[in-house]
From TrEMBL:
Superkingdom: Eukaryota
Family annotation (Pfam families): His_Phos_1 (PF00300)
Key words of the record: Coiled coil
Chain positions covered by the region annotation Disordered: 255-276
Protein name in UniProt: Phosphoglycerate mutase
Annotated PANTHER family: BROAD-RANGE ACID PHOSPHATASE DET1
Claim: Coiled coil is one of the keywords in the record: yes
CDD domains attached to this UniProt entry: HP_PGM_like (cd07067)
Keyword field contains Coiled coil: yes
Organism: Scheffersomyces stipitis (strain ATCC 58785 / CBS 6054 / NBRC 10063 / NRRL Y-11545) (Yeast)
Chain coiled-coil ranges: 197-224
């Protein structure tokens, strides 16, 4: 079964995937559009470059998850949509005729928030994630006992060497701002992203330092013996080895699954329902 966002790029990506499998023997599928799978709304208004620069700088300082784009959404708003969507999925999982493979064709921020909700990641974990590349497969697999594991490795800003942060921020911010500012600027050639880049560099380094302190606190408590067992169990999920954290995303599928050259920039994720 395929669920796809109604946005045109996701539709195109879904169609391209179908073209690749429709003639395979024994492959049956259905396709459903789901409006709750649309990408975060970045606003419908026409803005000046100065206004867009202000919005993106504020977002970098405030945090990508909670900052609400004027006339648009925050990632927290997307989280609420996904919570409703997941409830619908869970009900469908109980149906006897539900297929054993589910493919979600969606978008980058939506995919990260979906994983955050599904695996109960913390706010810090979400903010630590780097952008997911266009046309990237995210594979979730159910293990014995019904627990899902994320098989595709996700990269975080903590994985980046200090010397490489500036260059990677320039690329990510440039790609993201330009893509999400399309058709929203009266004079797009006047957009100056230098201030946005600097704000994002500061935010990433502050987050890395925060994560370092959290880990140091966890390691210190963890080494203090049995007296702190209850407290250890309540520590932020990022540093628990038995959770579905990004540190458990260990399988790199980039060499195994290669989208065709003309795929549109959407995200494909696969999800298998629990056995009945």
């Amino acid at each position: 079964m395929f669920y796809t966002s109604p946005y045109s790029r996701a539709r195109q990506t879904c169609n391209n995937i179908i073209e690749g499998i429709k003639d395979l023997p024994g492959v049956d599928y259905t396709i459903r559009e789901e409006t709750r799978m649309r990408e975060q709304d970045f606003g419908n208004f026409q803005a000046t470059p100065e206004e867009m620069e202000r919005i993106w700088e504020e977002r970098a300082h405030y945090g990508h998850f909670f900052y609400r784009i004027p006339h648009g959404e925050s990632a927290a708003d997307v989280y609420d949509r996904i919570a409703s969507f997941n409830e619908s999925l869970f009900r469908q999982f109980q149906q006897d005729d539900f297929p054993n493979i589910l493919v979600l064709v969606t978008h980058g921020i939506w995919a990260r928030v979906f994983l955050m909700k599904w695996f109960r990641w913390s706010y810090e974990e979400f903010e630590s994630l780097k952008n997911i590349p266009h046309c990237h497969y995210l594979i979730m697999k159910r293990h014995d006992g019904g627990k899902f594991f994320l098989k595709t490795r996700l990269l975080t800003w903590d994985d980046v060497d200090e010397d490489d942060i500036d260059a990677q921020v320039v690329k990510e911010v440039g790609d993201e701002v330009c893509f999400n500012s399309q058709n929203k600027l009266t004079n797009p050639e006047d957009l100056d992203i230098s201030g946005i880049i600097e704000a994002q560099k500061i935010a990433i380094r502050q987050l890395r330092e925060k994560n370092k302190k959290i880990k140091e606190a966890y390691d210190k408590i963890h080494s203090n013996g049995n007296g702190y067992t209850d407290y250890r169990e309540k520590m932020v999920s990022r540093f628990k080895l038995d959770n579905q954290s990004v540190v458990n995303s260990v399988e790199n599928l980039s060499g195994q699954l290669s989208p065709t050259r003309n795929f549109s920039p959407s995200i494909s994720g696969t999800l298998s329902p629990p056995s009945r």
